[in-house]
Amino acid sequence: MLWKLAWRNLWRNRMRTWLSALVIAIGLVALIFLDTMMVGMNTNMVKNATDSLMGHAQMHALGFRDEHEVNLTINNLDESLVQLREHPDLTFLSQRVLTQAMLSSSGGGEPVFTLGIDPAEEQLLSKFDEAIIEGEYLDSVSANKMILGWKVAEKLELVLGDRLVLTAVDAESSEMAQVLFRLSGIFKTGEEQMDGSMVLVPRQTLQKMLKLEGRIHQIALRYKNLTQEGIPLRPLTKPAESSGNELLLWTELMPSLYMITQMTDLSMAIMGIILFLIIALGVTNTLLMGLYERMFEFGIIKSIGTTPWQSARLMLYEAVCLGFLSIVVGLILAVFVIAIFAFYGIDYTGIEFSGVTFQEKIYPSFKWERLVIYPFLSMGFTLLAAVYPAFKLWYMLPIEALRKRKL
Amino acid sequence: MAEIVIKTKNLDKSFGSGETEIHALRDVNLEIMRGDFAAIVGPSGSGKTTLLNILCGLDTVSSGEIQVSGRSLQSMSGSELAKFRREHIGLVFQAYNLIPVLTVLENIEYVMLLQNVPSAERKERVRKFLTEVGLEGKENRFPAELSGGQQQRVAIARAMVSHPDIILADEPTANLDSATGAQLLEMMRRFNEELNMTFVFSTHDPQIMERSKRMVTLTDGRIVSDELK
Ligand SMILES: Nc1ncnc2c1ncn2[C@@H]1O[C@H](COP(=O)(O)OP(=O)(O)OP(=O)(O)O)[C@@H](O)[C@H]1O
Ligand SMILES: [Mg+2]
Questions:
Q1: For chain B, what are the domain ranges?
Q2: Cβ-defined contact of A1 to B109 (cutoff 8 Å)
Q3: What ipTM, to 2 d.p.?
Q4: Number of inter-chain CB pairs under 8 A, A vs B
Q5: What is the pTM of this model?
Q6: Cα B127 to Cα B161: distance, rounded to the nearest angstrom
């Protein structure tokens, strides 16, 4: 009976009820939408970062990451590779040799970051082949081909086919080693660092040049079966400290990116609470207005034997009904809004944010648990909004209420 | 000797304090017996409403004692009072007695629902009293679709349906024309005689006073006369 009464009371002032419901619903839509976009953006950022050079995880010799010391190559390489390849969730890996070098052409010199790779292996991991804008990607036959970022090409005024000399310090004697390459392709990744200073050459050529036969600096790898946040479900066990190697997930390789994805959760929570607090105040106001308008009636209801607690429940139930209405309206609206953005997306391509450049449009992305939490949150706050009116109704003496309408 | 339903002793009630103090009731000693059909009369401001409010526990006394159905009202909490009224007292106000969003049937059912009366019995009792007040067939109307007299009848049916010890009515006919008011009073009188229901009501209307069996006259908050007819 109290439920029935509460539900009918809700419809006393249709306009007001719809308006309140709409306000709560819009709050709900805003949160759900923002959340899906944030999740979408995070997913996008993580994907961009891990789809490129970095991969999902990397293995190095301990200390290599500090200064890229040429001598610090992965220990027990064969054993490590066997272990990595055994893992069921590992899809691709790429073995790399890395070094700082000087690239000189007839037009001048430029410091570059050189990556020695196996073309076939690397292709699967970082998709440099897709970033080629001129010429072609490396192949496994030609040992002296080189590809580089379009900004390097511009600085040195290079054209395809140019001869280039790479100079670097070798690992054994610390003497300068030089090798002649021929420019076979130019790539554009959209990422400043790669486009402006990166050079790719066949791994074996670089190994020979640096006197690093059979040794490598880095293994980048990709997993399958990742969570929506890009965390592998079954990560590889980390090598023991005594092995002299380290295996780091992207969250450790790019802690700033990981922190941003973590922070969005917190900021969404704060935003949600602030938004709903504001809405709750509005709802409290509406409920109070309804309470004052029907004061006499509540006086009757209380004087014919409704206990204070039952009267308070009447107000709470009314809020629950309003909450339900709002959630239904809100979820319907949310589906529409998200459907629209899922279709069109938001175009942030080319904008760099915390070291990652957006390569694709951002589309909303769901986290189901959130879609459940937000309606509960809005219901919770609607109830919270009803607490004060319910208390008023609880404490209100029927005699006072009856006096509100002098007959 | 008839059973006492209400007994008051030296009731005093004042509103405000100091300069603006209003003494609404002074030294009221009143006994209402089962089967009474008592009118409380007196000029405007004489304390009729105040007295009725105190008798049902809606208002508190300044001093004195009051017992309804053998229980003292002063010591009860708000929740106990609500339950007490629900079980023992039927209330009828001057107008707007009904909950506008509930139908006639639901209005009458309301108190029984709070009392957890089983559904079959509820329906049975609603039907019985709707017939008694002559509104059979109108159970699904909303209050706004009824005339003022019909609304007051529903209010009386609602007050009667939980079998209270007494029905207190503050000017139940004041908003009705005199013919309708007289009819309503006739009906109350019939319930009084046929079902031995105890009624205490206030009124200004001499025609209505005529139909009472007992008349308590208040002046300036004092009982100045209490006559049986
Ligand atoms: N809440 C209140 N605060 C202050 N004074 C009050 C209050 N209620 C009633 N009074 C005063 O108490 C006195 C008795 O009022 P009451 O309403 O009981 O009279 P009444 O006999 O019912 O009058 P009426 O016939 O006009 O309904 C009046 O002087 C009134 O002004
Ligand atoms: Mg009065």
A1: 4-98+164-228
A2: yes
A3: 0.91
A4: 71
A5: 0.78
A6: 10
Query: Are residues A37 and A136 in contact, defined by beta-carbon separation less than 8 angstroms?
Result: no
The domain spans of chain A are: 2-48+258-402, 57-225
Query: Chain A within 8 Å of B82 (Cβ-Cβ)?
Result: yes
Q: Which of B11, B26, B46 to mutate to test the pocket of ligand 1 (most atoms within 8 A of CB)?
A: B46
The residue among A363, A367, A362 whose CA lies nearest residue A342 is A363
Q: In sequence order, which residues have a C-beta less than 8 Å from that of residue A407 and are 6 or more positions away?
A: B94, B95, B174, B175
Per-residue pLDDT of chain B in tens (229 residues, 90 and over written 9): 578 899 999 999 999 888 888 899 999 999 999 999 999 999 999 999 999 999 999 999 999 999 999 899 888 988 999 999 999 999 999 888 899 999 999 999 999 998 889 999 999 999 999 998 889 889 899 999 999 999 999 999 999 998 999 999 999 998 889 899 999 999 999 999 999 999 999 999 888 888 899 999 999 999 999 988 8
**Cα(A100)–Cα(A104) distance, rounded to whole angstroms?**
13
For the CA of B43, the closest atom of ligand 1 is 25
- The full length of chain B comes to 229
Residue of A nearest to B161 (CA): A304
Residue pair A356/A50 in contact (Cβ under 8 Å)? The answer is no
Q: Which long-range contacts (CB under 8 A, 24 or more apart) does A72-76 make?
A: A72/A217, A73/A212, A73/A215, A73/A216, A73/A217, A74/A215, A74/A216, A74/A217, A74/A218, A74/A219, A74/A245, A75/A243, A75/A244, A75/A245, A76/A243, A76/A245
| Locus of tokens 């990116």 | A257
Residues whose beta carbons lie less than 5 angstroms from ion ligand 2: B 49
Give the separation between CA A169 and CA A179, rounded to whole angstroms: 12
- The tally of CA atoms less than 13 A away on the side-chain side of residue A171 is 21
Measure the CA angle with vertex B6, ends A407 and B11; round to 5°: 70
Does the CB atom of residue B41 touch ligand 1 within 6 A?
no
β-bridge partners, A120: none
Would you call A343 exposed, middle or buried from its count of C-beta atoms within 10 A (0-12, 13-18, 19+)?
A: exposed
In the CATH scheme, what is the code of domain B4-98+164-228?
3.40.50.300
Model confidence over B60-98: pLDDT tens digits? 999 999 999 989 988 898 899 999 999 999 999 988 889
Q: How far apart are CA A339 and CA A344, in angstroms?
A: 9
Interchain contact B79–A (C-beta under 8 A)? yes
Q: From ligand 1's centre to the CA of B89, what distance in Å?
A: 22
Mean per-residue pLDDT of chain A: 88
> What are the pLDDT digits (tens) for A28-73?
898 888 888 888 888 888 888 888 888 999 999 999 988 888 889 9
Non-local CB neighbours of A59 within 8 Å, separated by 6+ positions: A74, A80, A84, A218, A219, A221, A239, A245, A246, A247, A248
